[in-house]
Amino acid sequence: MSFRREPNPNRNHPTHCPYCAGEDLYPNELSDFAWKCHECLRIFEVKFYGQDAPEQAPAPAKSTEQAYQESLAKHGYTEVLRKERHNDQR
Ligand SMILES: [Zn+2]
What we know:
single chain, alpha+beta, 2 domains, three-stranded antiparallel β-sheet, 11% strand, binds zinc ion
């Protein structure tokens, strides 16, 4: 299993203590992911491990120019298509 994103302490914070459902939570200095409940005095961690990588990733998006050129070619506007980049640079 590989993750696309590493755990990040700045993402998703608990709104309730998992032990007493208290809402008086504060970040704790024990770790970047630790929270202290001031109602039951428990310290716990909430860590978002990331998303699992999909089996098939979508193809990378085309650049605006590339998509525009393909659209022009698809609709038959071949006379306004740009030539290859190496022909434009002189
Ligand atoms: Zn609590």
